[in-house]
């Protein structure tokens, strides 16, 4: 693990950070112009930059201990570098031009589990570019550039939730976002509750293709129903004419949007937890983006007496589960659930609270 100074010889000009996120409610609703409720996690990505006076960018990833060289005309092939490249390209569309840079990326956001390590990288990169160039770029616009970088250069037709969450959410207040209008407000968790995130240990192998397929199904359903997006369907009866699986997909989006609106105004952790449980059922049965390991982990979490509610989180097909819990019991719950999960032959791991947060809490 090498610092910017160790890799490039002297200090960076700018340093910017952005957090990962976990979504509490509103899954697959963002690209249907609906509502979401993500919250930032403690793990963050830090991007440091300095103009290098050369004719190409040099990007170093501390996690991979590798440097990659590229120009805007000659894109990198390494996956992690395409996110940074995409941000530089999209920033240019907005008139933000950077000279060739030395770029250093350091992150403790877990990768590949649905906690938006890519959005954290995009938002941190764009924040660093904003600081370096002095560009006027508000936080919502910055998130949109990150989303475009992901769609155009990483090939996932994602919605706006992850980048908006990384750009605007806090660790103690969730971001209630209308993905159509980008209207938003910060919402505290219900009193006497805290967030627990556990990785199922199942890689999100089908995530890209399954995600794009679900998105296409939703667009097809909206087209057949004659609406701009499924957000515009309030009454499920409207979907009765649709064949399966489109009808079930619509049912998830309509019910999930309604759950976000209830959750936002919910000041009772028990009620919020019930909404999370319903959300999981809907993702499993109607949207069909869960897998057996996630269902098992969620069932273990839901059965724990100090858990208010739990569900899979993120795009699905593997990855992590989120639970709302009694704050004093987070580690006790994680230990018990991980033990029972291992007995069933799975290998999970605690993601939130992060090990660093646990250390700080102990001090
Ligand atoms: C991924 C996408 C988001 C959102 C979620 C599902 O994280 O990047 O835009 O669609 O899946 O809720």
Structural summary, described in words:
- The chain is α+β, with helices and mostly antiparallel strands and 363 residues long.
- It is 41% helix and 22% strand.
- The protein has eleven helices and eleven strands.
- The chain has helices at 4-8, 79-93, 117-133, 139-154, 161-168, 207-225, 246-264, 269-285, 292-303, 330-343, 355-362; strands at residues 14-25, 35-51, 57-61, 66-70, 101-107, 173-178, 184-188, 194-199, 307-312, 320-325, 349-352.
- Strands 1, 2, 3, 4, 5, 6 and 7 form a seven-stranded mixed beta sheet that branches.
- Strand 6 and strand 7 (184-188) form a beta hairpin.
- The longest helix is centred in the middle third of the chain and has 19 residues, at 207-225.
- It starts with a helix and ends with a helix.
- Alpha-D-galactopyranose (GLA) binds at residues 23, 27-28, 30-31, 158-159, 161-162, 314-315.
